[in-house]
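User: Assemble these into one structure.

Assistant: Restating your components, then the assembled model:
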Amino acid sequence: MNVRILSLLGLLALWIVAAWMSGDPQVLPMPHSLLRPLWVETSSGELPYHLLRTLIRVLWAFVLAMTLGLALGLVMGLSDRVNDWLDPWLVVFLNLPALVLIVLCYLWIGLNETAAIAAVTLNKIPNVTTIIREGARALNPDLKAMAQVYRMRWPAYLRHVVFPQLAPFIAGAARSGIAVIWKIVLVVEFLGRSNGVGFQIHLYFQLFDVVHVLIYALSFIAVMLAVEWILLQPAERRVRRWRDA
Amino acid sequence: MIRVDVTRKSFGTTEVLHGVRFDIQRGETLALLGPSGIGKSTLLRLVAGISKDFEGHIECPDKLAIVFQEPTLLDWRSTLDNILLVHPGLSRDAALAILDKVGLADKTDMYPRQLSLGQQRRLSLARAFAGQPDALIMDEPFVSLDAEMADDMLTLTERLIEETRPATLFVTHSRAEANRLAGRVLTLGGKPATVIADEPAGT
């Protein structure tokens, strides 16, 4: 049997043992006791609705953070002067707690969708920038010289020379990005939105309903695993094709 | 033609080149000889326009090609794309023709890493000559090849230069390679380096 499946089954077994030891379904219910409430939430349309709201926020923040982080990281990696100017900002933003940024965005922009997505994006940009900057610093100078001598145009140079070299760094930033972003989105929803998985978890937290907290959390983990397996991993395999040839 | 007049080239306070002057006419091949670390590759980078930080003046045609010590290929693109992406104006047929000329006609869809080092060097040559360059710069392109393969590459390079007739600047530390490929040999020496000999090949 696949090691990954065995490993997940091990986690499930651990859960069962812990639930059995706690002996209180209100603190930690057995896995099978989640199935019926899960069906009720799904068939009523509640769960799909909130999952979708969160997923849309994750996608927006992901696309924005990746695009801006990629541009910033590239410029900082290629120009020492720009890096000297922006590096202190990067250090400040890297060390700014996510919660502070979220609260400030809500206070300054308002309790709306723009503030929510801006807060998540701003939280993630520094990580993407740092990873891409390392990639830009590792670009092969001989290939740059080759492109310069043969007078390759900028768009072609970026597409065929720079981005393929950055691909492992972009994949790394995307992988860690998507994982961190959805966790921050949940906090953003917890603090200031009226829908989404984070909002539902907030609601059920106030009701001390562990079953529903687990249902929403696990459902979204399942969605993100699907995104990882269906989108991210095949995309990564495609850009790595030449290495395995 | 290539016209070089480097008054001074320094790295920090260390002057590496001083008063290096020479011309290369269209169809002429000039070999640049000198011990390792003398500044041959530095001079070559100045001529290619890769580095512009020097005192003096260099004229070099726009249609310039370069062959590095390492093949310097786009490992993530096919053999054919390595030609077409660098020369976007080139037709597919013309790219296939040059690959055929260097013996890579049956490798067009392969990635560079699937080729042997000799084949990668041939691809690098094909890329250089695909654009019908007016000037060609080569930085020890036969280094680390065994004798037989180096001989094959020299023969191929001779043929391609003969067909295209660019002004060629060729860096090597092998007198034999210089005599075989070049009409003129320029020797760099001293500290900072300058031209200490400019003589016909074979002398």
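The first helix of chain B runs from residue 40 to 48.
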